[in-house]
Write a structure and sequence with these properties.
Blueprint: H1 9-16, H2 31-36, E1 64-67, E2 70-73, H3 89-98
Antiparallel strand pairs: 1-2
Organism: Streptomyces rimofaciens
Protein name: Cyclic nucleotide-binding domain protein
Length: about 130
């Protein structure tokens, strides 16, 4: 009887190792890339895709991302605003969670110079 509750070492090693196959769209992949990377031919299998969200602090922009159909503001990027540079993480997270999506028509005035400001507006365009 096998009392093992985890994968065998060989199976775990196989899951942890990524298999690199040549791109399916060779017509649009640069030839130097096809030659430079170590590709392996496989007939079938499971592929791990390494996807990471990256945001650059210091580009004078507040980044947004979509999650489950909802648009969110990146809390750390609120530090692009001079008055929030020294704010702590908890405050930034609370502020980022307070943003609400509002749709505007083309040509509609969002804010005018000289008007009093009651809320912070981050414009996200597609």
């Amino acid at each position: 009887m096998n009392d093992r509750l985890s994968l065998a070492p060989d199976a775990a090693r196989q899951l942890a190792t990524t298999t690199k196959t040549t791109p399916q769209m060779r017509g649009i992949t640069p030839r130097y890339l096809l030659r430079a990377l170590p590709w392996v031919d496989v007939e079938s299998g499971v592929y791990r895709v390494n996807r990471r969200r990256t945001f650059i602090l210091g580009d004078d922009r507040i980044s947004c991302y979509s999650e489950g159909g909802a648009h969110r503001v990146v809390p750390e990027d609120l530090r692009e605003l001079p008055f929030l540079r020294e704010a702590d993480e908890a405050l930034l997270a609370e502020l980022a969670g307070a943003f609400e999506p509002v749709a505007f028509e083309a040509g509609q005035v969002i804010a005018a110079e000289g008007e009093t400001c009651e809320k912070l507006t981050v414009i996200r365009y597609l």
